[in-house]
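User: Some background: our group keeps a shared notebook of sequences we're curious about, and every so often someone picks one and asks for a predicted structure to add to the entry. Today it's my turn. The entry only has the sequence so far, pasted here. Could you supply the structure so I can complete it?
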Amino acid sequence: MRIVLGIAMLVVTLAVAGRRILWLTKLIRSGKADKTRTREPRPRAENAGEEVLGQRKLLKWSGAGLAHFFTFWGFNILGITIVEAYGALVVSRDFAFPFFGHARWLGFLEDLFAAAVLVAIIWFSINRLRNGPERKKRSSRFYGSHNGPAWFVLFMIFLVVATLVLYRAAQYNTGHFPWGRSKAPFFSYAVAQLLPSGAINQGIETFFIVAQMAVVFAFLILVVHSKHLHIGTAPINVYFKRLPDGLGALPPVTDDDGKAIDFADVENLSEDTVFGKGKIEDFTWKGYLDFATCTECGRCQSQCPAWNTDKPLSPKLLIMDLRDHLFAKAPYIFGTQTVPDGATPNFNTPAAEGGDNGGPPGSGGVAAGRGHHVPEAGYPRIEGSTVEQALRPLVGDLAAGGVIDPDVLWSCTTCGACVEQCPVDIEHIDHIVDMRRYQVLIESAFPSEAGTMLRNIENKGNPWGMANSGRDEWMKELSFEVRRATPGTKLDADIDYLFWVGCAGALEDRSRKVTVAFAELLHVAGVEFAVLGQGESCTGDPARRLGNEFVYQMQGMQNVETLNSIERAGPLKIVATCPHCFNTIANEYPQLGGHYEVVHHTQLLGRLVEEGRLTPIEPVDKTVTYHDPCYLGRHNKVYTPPREVLAAIPSLTSQEMHRCKDRGFCCGAGGARFWMEEKIGKRINRERTDEAIGLDPDMIGTACPFCMVMLSDAVAEKKGDGSAKEHVEVLDVAQILRRSLGTPSTGDSQPEAASTS
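Assistant: Of course. Here's the predicted structure to add to the notebook entry:
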């Protein structure tokens, strides 16, 4: 009977779970090609080892990370006990692994991790109760997740441990314990002392061995049909992640074969070529894998500046919406179902007729009592395969019944907090920008203010639309002559760096002061540099983040042609004060044939201070809190150099905001948001400035021209309402360092803040 029952449970489980796994595999493989994911197997394997086996990203959150670490390794170790239990059920009641199955260290290890998993699920339960969405609403990272199933999974994990310990305790009393009378398996031994003595242990042993296998097999079926699918997909997703040190470059727009599209040759493209992602079928297999891997943990949501300022974007909910849409549309992707001719979707069916509170039929909104209904994320999610789901547009407003609301799509600042915090390496920003690309390039649907910025870049070579002659104005404020680099000629042999000033550094008043201060610092340090002056043009970063890959490529190819035409011995060394220019030239221009050695100005200043070529001598008796620019920090992992420069300044006291470094909070300018009105919720720059002002600093330091504008505008507002002291300044690291050199500088003062957004 034991053998028949054990084999029957195994066969049913393999049939049900196997069918689901094959379905998921077929669905994920149906995504479009992405040939970049199989390159560099060694670093991929090393990274997967660190993140999966070492739980590196999870351990960034100490409490939850440790609990998950013990749960993860507990289930790996307890996998041995599952085989032991099945062997005891269908092979022999005295079953044990040959060679090591009776080793006391094995019994101790198994019991140790059984206890650790039990402690971990107690911690998870307390954490969910303390941070439940019922209590904390939007501030809970579990807001919008499938919280009911999550509690059920915790209960199932408890049953796995409980049935394990009880059948082993009974085995101890019946004499079938693999370790005899040893107390090394301490947990089983302790529970055995609580059980009654005598023949009843035979029944307890049999019952809980069967219960153990029933729970394990049921858990396996549950896993492949729930968000806990990540147990199997996460290691695969981590292995196939993009591998820059930081977020690095955006992937280019690709065709159906995964080949990058050259917008200079669009005339030769097929008429069916899609720019970006306009429907769920346009995503790659890695996108599908991302959607299937989401754990709904909400770490991304808790760090997202848009969500934290009451905007509709939650990276978690966006991925969940895409996943639900993908799963529901799978039969249409496979071709097993088709949309009837002439079918028209009805997204406003009353609840009594099958809709849910005005949502699409079958969407399961509030009326259906589903706890993961989140109006802020757009619309009630559709589950199941319906005609309405098949016809639902990927991006659209309420009337169109879109899966993703346009306000969700355009709230993103591409700061990278979601990708940085995601424990399973989902690439939220890539998916958001790809959907933006389709909206911009195919639908011409984007915020109207951004259109002015795009036209200015195309016509004037800068997003402000200012005359190109203004790029030389900052040089008049220097007491020395700035050398020029002329495209098509050889760079003087003694030039150390080409200084890429950037549009903001040359044309925006506050940023121009930074440019002057940095140029003076290079001059004092004896670093020879040259500039392109009017030969510069916008790198195309705001156009690319907005989704206009065409404008970006035209700008990028023009700049790459200019830079490549400069002759010199060895690679061209470039220094930039703008993290967006730095990121684009260093990480994205290689896609266009531009390969250079690029450093951010804080990296170069840190090196010059360390080498003694710049020596801060004048005390700056003030307090400063440093704001990490997203495109310098998370995107490029440059956290230390700016802080080292500030630490070298005498009498300057630094204070860290609680959201700093890889958890730094965005200023609100990234993702082309600098050029768009912020109409929903609290302004992100005000949220960040409130955090900075809360430390009562004299200065807010940063290392990005856009951060400077956003923060100084917010500081000016706070001064106006009396919530900030009049002497508070927003300064670049270069300006603060320049103050400490002991001589006055034209780049040391700061004009009155006036918004240029």
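Suggested note for the entry: The beta strands are 483-484, 497-500, 529-531, 573-576, 597-600, 623-626, 653-655, 699-702, 729-732. Residues 431 and 523 are 44 Å apart (CA to CA).
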